[in-house]
């Protein structure tokens, strides 16, 4: 008898898969909001060379971009307790995602800010906009509008990368898949369904973020 | 779910996976193939000491590896070790990329639908371990506590069976993560093998592991693909012989530092 | 039972694993780059079917984890009667992954070439392939180099998931060693250092290319 596919033993755990998918989306949402916020902060420090923060963000960006996410996660989960900071699997996962996305989005948004023509700043000054208004309407929004697709792609990369969080027992989608297949040995069927869920989530998140971007960042007159 | 709907789902999903058909080209007789090729391909762990970990040359070693060598020797063929993880060990077997899985597999009814299991080849002395001063003597005392365990391992299966809902079980990827979680205080207790606990105590003085209670001795089995009855029978013969002629006893003494239980 | 590893044993084995990471990265980059160019041509083509195909390809392989792609190639195709060696599966999986991202990065670069260039070259009666080859790509190339080299860093780190199909690259070697020595901090610290050593020069190179391009403009 050859191997027979059977999705039923996996579909029996649909609730676990959906909970895992919801957890992955939650991790992604938290990671995206805080990570992009961190990225905006970093990008401003970098683009305007605000020392010593610019240098500090420079080191941070290189350290994070050139090392694997798994190692960053291990360091936070297993390393920080030695310094008296004990984070749960969830907290560690969110922190790792924020730190990771923060580094990439610092670079992405910086490129957007640096592409803002200088004339724009001068025009803003001549319109008697105050510093905060100038920043939001002349610097930040056009910069975000310019790099929004790249940011959305990076959020999706981070979402797919969050699969690694299963290694420290955070019960997200890959954890659910691995848990199910460790019980019923239906690895192929389980991973196939998990992949389909990841794909659906990637499409959903991309659509949602592109729409939000269109509505709040790109759409208004610049 | 009705049979029809299930069939529909199955074919739709399998079709979407770009599969020409939903079954393997039947390997008529793996045992004959093994003898013809002169090689036994065995999937073994390399992240699960003492059953399978690596030496300084990065070659797998451990109870499971010695068992694989023993079976190959009896078959009169060479052994080819395929290092696997708990994620890919079964696919290696079901896709015919490995002839046997010797990866400290525990058995349950669901798993038996997918692969066949041999007779037991190894005992597994698991327990729950924790700090010296923790007052835990039975599984009931774990209520409200957090226990780390390696996902999919025998101890995971057994602990999940006996622990109540009030126990928080954290399932980590591999032994290293489970043990690190204990050493760094991320979990209060862990379930693991006696030998592993002893080795950890030898290696680190960070947070000692003291035995709280033993989980039922749950043995390990060799995994064989479905429908390979000739191979399964032969493996069972070899295990039975190894139990009586002392060769499995030697493996047990070497890796588990304990005699093979008489009832295995 | 537990072998004692010296620090040198750990470093030596990690270097061995690093070689695999390097080899897999090169394969991913060469094959993925070639396939990415092909997908880019389809994506930019005037044929709607070709466009849709390329778009679907990019969405699919950007939207699913590389780990699962490798799993399905390596373990799924044999179930359909096609035997796949680990090398073939890794090459295929990494190519799909890399080409999807590169095609999308390069599309952005091609679109940054002013429309006038398309119109001017069309008025010279150049066909699509000729336009791309002689007019558009040479200009897009300048913009493309920095993000392409930047993405190569992600490819290097992405090769870690090939351990699912049996490759003992840097991350896998690290996890095997951590499980044999119970010294995760030393081992994973060294793993991070290894990736940094491979990736940082690429990042620096991307930066210098970016600067060069800015000056040239």
TrEMBL record, chain A:
Q: Does the keyword Manganese apply?
A: no
Q: Name one Pfam family in it.
A: BPD_transp_1
Q: Where does the UniProt annotation locate this protein?
A: Cell inner membrane; Cell membrane
Q: What is its main location?
A: membrane
Gene Ontology annotations for the cellular component aspect, listed alphabetically: ATP-binding cassette (ABC) transporter complex
Q: Which key words tag this protein in UniProt?
A: Cell membrane, Membrane, Transmembrane, Transmembrane helix, Transport
Q: Does the UniProt entry include the keyword NADP?
A: no
Instruction: Name the Gene Ontology biological process terms.
Output: amino acid transport
Q: Which InterPro entries does the annotation name?
A: AA_ABC_transptr_permease_3TM, ArtM/GltK/GlnP/TcyL/YhdX-like, MetI-like, MetI-like_sf
Question: Which parts of the sequence belong to the ABC transmembrane type-1 domain?
Answer: 21-210
> What is an example of a GO molecular function annotated in this UniProt entry?
transmembrane transporter activity
Q: Which domain of life is it from?
A: Bacteria
Alphabetized PROSITE patterns for the sequence? ABC_TM1
What topology in the membrane does the UniProt record assign?
Answer: Multi-pass membrane protein
- Indicate the transmembrane segments per the record: 20-48, 69-88, 147-170, 190-209
Q: Which family does it belong to?
A: Belongs to the binding-protein-dependent transport system permease family. HisMQ subfamily.
Q: Which NCBIfam families match?
A: HEQRo_perm_3TM
PANTHER family according to UniProt: ABC TRANSPORTER PERMEASE PROTEIN, MEMBRANE COMPONENT OF AMINO ACID ABC TRANSPORTER
What is this protein called in UniProt?
A: Amino acid ABC transporter permease
Q: Which organism is it from?
A: Pseudothauera nasutitermitis
TrEMBL record, chain B:
Q: Which SUPFAM superfamilies match?
A: Periplasmic binding protein-like II
* InterPro entries reported in the protein's UniProt record: Solute-binding_3/MltF_N, TAT_signal
Which residues are in coiled coils?
none
Keywords (A to Z) from UniProt:
Signal
* Tagged with keyword Membrane: no
**Among its keywords, does the record have DNA damage?**
no
Which Pfam families does this chain map to?
A: SBP_bac_3
Question: What are the residue boundaries of the Solute-binding protein family 3/N-terminal domain, all occurrences included?
Answer: 39-259
Secretion signal: which residues? 1-28
Q: Which Gene3D superfamilies match?
A: Periplasmic binding protein-like II (3.40.190.10)
- Which PANTHER family does this entry report, sorted A to Z? AMINO ACID ABC TRANSPORTER SUBSTRATE-BINDING PROTEIN, MEMBRANE-BOUND LYTIC MUREIN TRANSGLYCOSYLASE F
Record protein name field: Transporter substrate-binding domain-containing protein
From TrEMBL, chain C:
Localization per record: Cell inner membrane; Cell membrane
One family from Pfam that matches here is BPD_transp_1
Q: Keywords in alphabetical order, please.
A: Cell membrane, Membrane, Transmembrane, Transmembrane helix, Transport
Q: How does it sit in the membrane?
A: Multi-pass membrane protein
Give one GO biological process term.
Answer: amino acid transport
Q: Which CDD domains match?
A: TM_PBP2
Question: SUPFAM superfamilies, per this entry?
Answer: MetI-like
- Specify the domain of life of the species encoding this protein: Bacteria
Keyword check for Cell division, yes or no.
Answer: no
Q: Name all ABC transmembrane type-1 domain ranges.
A: 18-206
A single GO molecular function, which one?
transmembrane transporter activity
Spell out the GO cellular component terms annotated for this protein, sorted alphabetically and separated by semicolons: ATP-binding cassette (ABC) transporter complex
PROSITE patterns associated with the record: ABC_TM1
Transmembrane ranges, per UniProt, are 20-42, 63-81, 87-106, 140-165, 185-206
- Broad class of where this protein is predominantly found: membrane
Q: Would you identify the family this protein belongs to, as annotated?
A: Belongs to the binding-protein-dependent transport system permease family. HisMQ subfamily.
What's this protein's name?
Answer: Amino acid ABC transporter permease
Q: Species name for this entry?
A: Pseudothauera nasutitermitis
């Amino acid at each position: 008898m050859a191997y027979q596919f059977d999705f039923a033993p996996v579909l029996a755990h649909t609730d676990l898969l959906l909970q895992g998918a919801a957890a992955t989306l939650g991790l992604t949402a938290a990671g995206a909001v805080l990570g992009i916020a961190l990225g905006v902060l970093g990008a401003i420090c970098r683009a305007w060379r605000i020392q010593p923060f610019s240098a500090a963000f420079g080191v941070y960006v290189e350290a994070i971009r050139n090392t694997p996410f798994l190692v960053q996660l291990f360091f936070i989960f297993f390393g920080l307790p030695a310094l008296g900071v004990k984070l749960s699997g969830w907290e560690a996962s969110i922190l790792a995602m924020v730190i990771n996305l923060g580094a990439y989005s610092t670079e992405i948004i910086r490129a957007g800010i640096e592409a803002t023509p200088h004339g724009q700043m001068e025009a803003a000054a001549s319109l008697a906009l105050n510093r905060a208004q100038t920043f939001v309407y002349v610097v930040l929004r056009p910069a975000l509008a310019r790099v929004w697709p790249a940011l959305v792609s990076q959020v999706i990369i981070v979402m797919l990368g969050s699969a690694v969080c299963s290694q420290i027992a955070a019960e997200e989608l890959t954890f659910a898949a691995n848990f199910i297949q460790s019980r019923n040995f239906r690895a192929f069927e389980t991973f196939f369904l998990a992949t389909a869920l990841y794909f659906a989530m990637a499409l959903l998140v991309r659509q949602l973020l592109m729409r939000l971007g269109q509505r709040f960042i790109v759409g208004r007159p610049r | 779910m009705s049979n029809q709907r299930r069939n529909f789902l199955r074919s739709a999903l399998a079709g979407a996976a770009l599969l020409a058909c939903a079954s393997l080209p039947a390997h008529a007789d793996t045992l004959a193939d093994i003898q013809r090729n002169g090689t036994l391909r065995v999937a073994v762990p390399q992240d699960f000491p003492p059953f399978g970990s690596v030496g300084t040359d990065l070659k797998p070693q451990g109870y499971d590896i010695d068992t694989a060598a023993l079976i190959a020797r009896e078959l009169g063929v060479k052994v080819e070790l395929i290092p696997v993880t708990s994620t890919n060990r079964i696919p290696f077997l079901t896709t015919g990329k490995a002839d046997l899985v010797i990866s400290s597999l525990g058995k349950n009814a669901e798993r038996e639908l997918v692969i066949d299991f041999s007779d037991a080849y190894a005992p597994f002395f698991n327990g729950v371990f924790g700090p010296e001063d923790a007052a835990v003597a039975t599984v009931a005392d774990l209520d409200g506590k957090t226990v780390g365990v390696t996902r999919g391992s025998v101890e995971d299966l057994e602990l999940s069976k006996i622990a109540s809902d009030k126990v928080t079980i954290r399932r980590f990827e591999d032994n290293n993560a489970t043990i690190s979680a204990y050493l760094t205080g991320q979990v209060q207790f862990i379930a693991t093998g006696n030998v592993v606990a002893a080795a950890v105590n030898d290696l680190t003085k960070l947070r000692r592991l003291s035995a709280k209670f033993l989980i039922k001795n749950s043995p390990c089995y060799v995994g064989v693909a479905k429908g390979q009855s000739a191979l399964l029978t032969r493996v069972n013969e070899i295990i039975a012989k190894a139990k009586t002629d002392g060769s499995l006893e030697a493996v047990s003494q070497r890796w588990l530092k304990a005699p093979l239980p008489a009832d295995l | 039972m537990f072998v004692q590893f010296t620090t040198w044993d750990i470093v030596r084995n990690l270097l061995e694993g690093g070689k695999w990471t390097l080899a897999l990265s090169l394969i991913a980059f060469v094959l993925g780059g070639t396939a990415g160019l092909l997908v880019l041509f389809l994506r930019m083509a005037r044929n709607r079917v070709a466009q849709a195909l390329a778009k679907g390809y990019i969405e699919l392989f950007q939207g699913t984890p590389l780990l699962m792609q490798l799993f399905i190639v390596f373990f799924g195709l044999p179930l359909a009667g096609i035997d796949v060696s680990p090398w073939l599966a890794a090459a295929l999986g990494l190519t799909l992954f890399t080409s999807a991202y590169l095609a999308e990065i390069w599309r952005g670069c091609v679109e940054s070439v002013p429309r006038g260039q398309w119109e001017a070259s069309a008025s010279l009666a150049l066909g699509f392939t000729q336009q791309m080859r002689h007019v558009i790509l040479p200009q897009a190339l300048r913009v493309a180099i920095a993000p392409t080299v930047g993405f190569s860093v992600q490819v290097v780190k992405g090769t870690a998931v090939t351990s699912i199909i049996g490759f003992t690259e840097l991350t896998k070697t690290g996890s095997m060693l951590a499980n044999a020595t119970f010294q995760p901090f030393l081992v994973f610290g060294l793993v991070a250092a290894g990736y940094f050593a491979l990736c940082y020069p690429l990042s620096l190179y991307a930066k210098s290319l970016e600067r060069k391009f800015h000056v040239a403009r």
